[in-house]
Amino acid sequence: MLEHCAQARFVWNLACEQHAHWRPGRAAAPGYNEQARQLTEARAEFAWLRAGSVTVQQQALRDFAQAMSSFFRGIHRRPSWRKAGRDEGFRQVGVKSEHVQRLNRRYGRVWVLKVGWVRFRWSRAEGVKSYRVTCDRAGRWHVAFAAIPDPIPAPGNGQTVGLDRGIAVSAALSTGELLVVAGFSQGERRRLRRLQRRLARCARGSNRRARVKAAIARVKARVTERRKDWVEKISTDLARRFDLIRVEDLDIRGMTRSAKGTVERPGRNVGQKAGLNRGILANGWGLLVARLQHKAAGRVRKVRAAYTSQQCSACGHIAPENRQSQAVFRCVACGFACHADVNAARNIAAGRAVTARGALQPLGGAVNREPHLATSAP
Ligand SMILES: [Zn+2]
């Protein structure tokens, strides 16, 4: 399976290479058909590629073509190079139903080309058409079957919830609930620090270094899994309890990427934002919204995030002074006081979108309404 991974990565990176040198005006970078023809030539030439599965290698090219098309449609980042030890995986489509079998309650087995039957711990798989095998940094193998679960039916109670995602509190609900995802425990943090010190003392390329790296990856994987588990539970819970779920429309990619800036135009508050990035990633915002959209299909609305933290959810007054601290919100106009994140969640639930000029707009981009209140937007 490591060979499959290495060959899929090799083919993917070659495709990346061909597209990386393309600039507007030059001859078009080769598409899938041309690349598949080149793959046939490469297989004739290199015994290493020939020994592997042509299906796996072609699939890597198809995945790349799909990734490029997603990139051009603006729904995904540009596909980038895969790195050994980090992006290990390959995909198999057109899986025959007899090639995925359930052995008992706990285990199933899947037929992998050129490898044979591979047993796996069964969690969920129905009507499987394709799967992806990956090896994570902690050296554990996973098999993921592509099957989008049925969305959870709406409860039909007409209730709307607003969800404010944050750092100190992972998610605040307009109902007043504050949800915190467990990050590293004290013990895990200590162990991680100790391992990182040990790693610094290891000689490059040594076996000891590889062992320490794997141990670090295992600690980190535990936290990642905890976060994913939390996201699954929260998203299911929200999809079951509320008819409509409103979340902030934050461009997470912009927030996580632009902090450092460039040499000519260095970013502002770099250290602060880097800390924020860690928090964002630790809380898994993007994943939470993505899972909500799967589970509560068509019932998730994104609301512009501007001023949700400065606006009073009781009277609508917007002022930076309203936000007294990270946690405390107290309206300077009407005196309404509340947890700052819950106040923001209530604004999001109300679907209040505020334009840059500070005028309140009804949800759904309808015709301008009379400004709700005179506001002093910064
Ligand atoms: Zn107020």
The overall number of domains is 3
Query: What is the topology, as strand order, of the major beta sheet?
Result: 9-8-7-10-11
Q: What is the element string, with H for helices and E for strands?
A: HHHHEEEEEEEEEHHEHHHEEEHEE
| Main sheet: strands, sense, barrel | 5 strands, mixed
How far apart, in Å, are the first and last alpha carbons? Answer: 57 Å
Give the class from helix and strand content and strand pairing.
alpha+beta
Into which percentage range does the β-strand content fall?
Answer: 15-25%
Topology diagram in text:
Elements: H1 2-20, H2 32-45, H3 47-51, H4 54-72, E1 88-93, E2 100-102, E3 107-112, E4 116-121, E5 130-135, E6 141-145, E7 160-165, E8 171-173, E9 178-179, H5 186-201, H6 207-241, E10 244-249, H7 252-257, H8 270-283, H9 285-295, E11 300-304, E12 328-330, E13 337-339, H10 340-350, E14 353-354, E15 360-361
